[in-house]
# Entry
Amino acid sequence: MALLVSAAIGLLTACGLYLLLRPRVFSVILGLTLLSYAVNALIFLGGRLSATAAPLALPGAVGLADPLPQALVLTAIVIGFGMTAYLVALALRAKGETGTDHVDGAPPTDTPPGRAE
Amino acid sequence: MTHAPVLPILLPMAAAIALLLLPAANRRAVALVSMLTQLVVAGLLLVMADDGTVHVYRLGDWPAPYGIVLVADRLAALMVAVTSVLGLAALAHACAGSDRDGRHFHPLFQLQLAGLNGAFLTGDIFNLFVFFEILLLASYGLLMHGGGSARARAGIAYVVLNLAGSALFLIALGLVYGTLGTLNLADIAVVLAQVPQADQALVRTAAALLVAVFLLKAALLPLSFWLPHVYTAAGAPVAALFAVMTKVGVYALLRLEVIGLSGAPATAGLLQPWLPLLALLTIAAGTIGALAARRLAGVVANLVLVSTGTLLAAIAVGTPTTTAAALYYLPHTTLVTGGLFLLVDHLARERGPKGDTIDNGPPLPRALPLGAAFLVLAVAVSGVPPLSGFLGKVMVMQAVRDAPMGGWIWAALLVSSLVVALVLARAASAFFWEAAPDEPPAAQAEPALTGRRTVAALLLLVAASPLLTLAAVPVAAYARATADQLHARQPYIAAVLGAKPDVQRERRP
Amino acid sequence: MSPHALAALLLAPFLGVPLVLLLQARGRRWAAWGAAGAMAAGLAILAPFVSAVLHGGTVVMRWPWLPEWGMDVALRLDGLGLLFAGLILGIGLLIVLYAAYYLPMNDRLGRFYAMLLAFAGGMLGVALAENMLLLVVFWEITSLSSFLLIAYWSDSREARVAARMALAVTGGGGLALLAGVLLLAHVAGSFELSEVLARGDLVRDHALYPVILVLVLLGAFTKSAQFPFHFWLPNAMAAPTPVSAYLHSATMVKAGVFLLARFYPVLAETDLWLVLVGGTGAVTFVYGAYVALLKNDLKGLLAYSTISHLGLITLLLGLNTPMAAVAAVFHIINHAIFKASLFIAAGIIDHECGTRDMRRLGGLFRFMPWTATLAIVAAGSMAGVPLLNGFLSKEMFFVETINHPAFFGAMGYALPAFATLAGMLSVAYSARFVHEVFFSAATADMPRTPHEPPRWMRLPVDVLVALVLLVGLLPQWTVGPILTAASAAVLQADVPPFKLAIWHGFNMPLAMSAAALVGGLLYYRRRHALFALHARFLPRLASQVAFERAYRIAEFAAMRLMALADRRSLPTYLALFLGFTVVLGAWAWHSATPSSLAGPLPWGETDPVTWVGVALLAIGALGTVLLHRQRLIALVFMSVAGLVVSLAFLRFAAPDLALTQLSVEVVTIVLLLMALRYLPQEAVAESSPALRWRDAALAGLGGLGVAALCFAMLTRPFDTISGYHIAQSVPGGGGANVVNVILVDFRGFDTLGEIAVLAMAALGLHALLDGLRLVPQAGGTRTQDRYPVMLAMLMRPLLPLAIAVSVHIFLRGHNLPGGGFIAGLVIAIALMLQYVAGGIDFAQARLRLDYVRVLGLGLAIAMATGLASWLFGRPFLTSAHGYVSPPIVGSFEIASAMAFDLGVCLVVIGAVMLALTELGLLGCREQAPAQGEG
# Structure
């Protein structure tokens, strides 16, 4: 189990990272989303897999899952959502400003070098 | 003032909310009032922290480590104070008109401050992440304020890089909780000290990932290339405020000292072998970048890298002395670089179409006052006597003398001082002396910044370095005390968890 | 006299700076008086100390400042300091007077005097510093003020470049000096001179001695324009003549030799010192003298002669014999006097004739006999003519060259011969100065017909030349005491007995002088051959052109380097970050105490469901990657992956997560779909295969790392604090759903931050899209054509239903999976469906909500709930709870935290709706142009 789950998360991460390195914003957004899936799952697994019951402190409940990572993941999901929404808007704005959805605002050419401007 | 530690976060938040609900008319007033109040509160915190007590604020009245605590120790108070001063200047400058270039400048600005102060004050590592996100998202908004293709370009890079950073931060946090089972910094310190042999590699790696995140924020080579583009693309007040953003990364790294990063068996020697070298290269990169920059803003942006390198070079050594030196240098470099960004805006507007390109332009109407300001800031930032830049540099040099690579750090600092001085002299020559007579004082695209507020803002930051020099004794003493408190660690832990920590843990699975 | 008066002495010129700036408003005369006053005040404060110091006393004052960092305000006044202070203030006074006449009438002088006084202050600081760091501080202040003064006439390009050149050389030297001083203090164990000077042997025997020596010498040589750092000085002549006379001959350039003299007891008297200092001095001495003759510019000639004389002083200090040191001090005095007067005279000539070019000057003796006479006397002193002060120190020098301990046997003649040769050269250029300017009427085409300058303008020359004669005729009586005191200070020991007299009888030195005079004159007669030679063979490039070229090259190199290092490409930045992290992580694991990846825990049985899930997940993820250019399809695959993740949450006992993930998923997909309308549906493959392999490798490593860490974590047990949360959830938090209680209570502060982020995201998005116009791309998802009526009919009643549902979710959230966030999303999705069904205009017409205000309101409620606890004297966000049983819903526990949750709910609605409406509006901007700041 542990191995399989870890492998799955690793795969998600790798796919996310690969897309993150693509030169188009949309791919980058996809990548970041995949990456966030992986990350959320990882945090969640911080509470381990053994639990059998949802963390509801009902009388006589046993084997509750670790609630803390779940709370953290919830926060992470929401923040991630906000970030994605913002990045989408930024991508559109950049499209409007530069006319392309290339992450560098222009397909790579040998533009004037090294000027911090 | 039992609530003092939470005020630097709540005040700007409340202000932001008010700014969302209030009519547009009196936004500036609200923002400025909030900013001034924050300054007062920051002063209060400094005073409270200066007697050495570590003030702990238990949010929701839950005992640590189960709830979230805010911890106002000397270091946090110092950072909050620096931020408020810089924030006040930046805000005053923005109120000259650039705040109207787009929507929601003021709420975002306030939330940016809330995020910064929160990051400095929180004693909980996941809460630190949350505040990082707040200050980042605010900085995205502020960076894009006013629009334009340059900002869009820089914005995408900045946002995506930081999102990647946030993802890494979460991975690290997941591992930290998944191994140490707690999020409270003081509690982490306790647990970290007794990590079983078998888990040390895992914990060490998690810590390394955290460090990587903080170094991305601090813009250490090779994670620094984004910075000049972003800082030059941002509007002047935003760039000025950003001067403290890199310091957040530096601060976070310093804060890890509390959990015993350099002391605990699992994480000992995690930085020393490589950080000094990279810090050195960062100084070099910043210096070369400053030499290469065609615009004054570009020069200043690269100077931010130099200051990052200097700070990290000192911190990497990790002795109380180096920390003390770094902590005297930190306020100086933050305020001075911020001031330079504002000054660049003043100059650029007076030069009209020429902007801040380093090249002869029209004669400046306000050559003398601006020239004087330039002289002070240039002397301060290049670390030439007699201002605080020199003091800071001398302190750092003495502190790292016996450290590995100490000689190299000396060389880097001195050479960079000289080059920076020459670059700024070249710029001064172009701006103030090489007035091209054929060009009349151009019909300016934007009005010159002669408003009372902007001048005051500039003065505030120009005066910073002389004041830090005159007040060198108290400031240096505070820095030293802060460093000692940080490295002692016990005061912090005891204040948060009590003298004899009794934390109930349960083994999973 | 209290030693603290030294501080006053040091402050006097600095206080003058603002004074003259104020006074200039009342006219240049006032400014001049102000400056003179400052200098005079300094002299007045100095006076009371004189007798004590002349009798060998040393006045020291100490104000501890930053002792921990070795920085204290400590000043000392000994013979050497007194000598320099006297020169600085005395000559300074004369220069102030002279400048008032020299500078054009339209110059208000305030700025000039301000800089001049700042320099004087810095120079005094160098002379009086007891703390070595203080010395460095003032040292650099002189560099800075010299930079500003050289560029005083900033219209001239020469001046500007010369100023930067001087800054580069002297400033750089200063930084080397800083390093040297820090090391010296480290070795000697103190920053205080009086202690360091006493520890010469300790320093000289230390391994770091050569390093320290070289660093300090770099400082001294750059400042005193020693070969090969001399080139900045001739260019500095672009400064107004008063500056040249004051800084670049009498005082600032003397700072270098002052430094040598200052550290003589610590660093001198080693062979290394003899070679470096003596050698450099000798070369500079001859080189300067040789070039001086070739200069047609009056100031150029004087500049090189200055270089040469500085070389002589350096050489004397380098000889390592006490008497040589005495001669050096003596020559410092003499040179300051005659060279200042010569510069001032040159300035007068320039002022009167409108040129400094000796080829155009001539026969001035007729026009200004008095000035001429004075200048000739000074020049004679420069050449070392008997009865003038220059002669005496040169005689001492000759004496020292004869039978110097380090030069014996045949070598014994080398040094004297060399000295005589150098003497000849200086005679030659002095002769040229006198002859070509005042006599040879050969080619006198002067712009103006000169005449004697105003009396006050000439006064400084009168005074200085009077001194030349006085010292020359009555040395023992005039300079004897100060020379002894200063030399004692240099040697930090008893001065060997010496007799200052004009006549020592017929002896070797006298012969050498005679030889130098005669030879020099002969050499001068044959000069034209030499000039021709140089005109032919040495077309030399002006050093400032060279400097500017070097600077440009450095700039260009920097640009190329940055261009190589920084391609301005985000993928590269990300790759660097990823690579850095992977390496650091791997190293961190490797450098830890070795332990196996797998921990003690059993790996656990894998049930088929999980297998299927993982398989689906793999398909989703890989599909997204492989088809990421067909964007719609990629989106579908991605959502599959997301769906699996949320199901996994359900499977592993995290219903809240499942719900949230799912609803967020929906909204995200919708956002992306709406965005896709404005982006190309298909992207071309643009990154090269090599690049893709690199990325694949990096991504693979990253994934591998995460998998490994995750596995290591899963197979290890850990101790968590979360037991407390479960235990306290009901009694402390008033809710059974521990996750929700953590969110709104235990860690409510996180949630407050989280909704702040959400709100900001919406605001930022609003600011970004506000007023943005985009044309939908061909083949975009077509939400803009006619809306299916059926769907609309279906959707209308859905809204109230959805609201009811979300209220339920909200209320139970504290005890069962649910809560404000999910409730908010449900409402948002329902509203969103209205848009999809009815179209943006329909929705706009019916939902007149200012979502920005909704955001504000939500935040306000959440915050107010938190603040409410202050009323009960509790910290922020402290919650309270109790039971209520309203109708219908039935009895349930209500906690103040639920108000907080309501805030969350509102923020979620506001944020999501703001985002959706803004995105929706993009298409139809034409109809509805954006209104201004709202």
Q: What stands out?
A: The mean pLDDT of chain B is 93. Chain B touches chain C through 125 residues (CB under 8 Å).
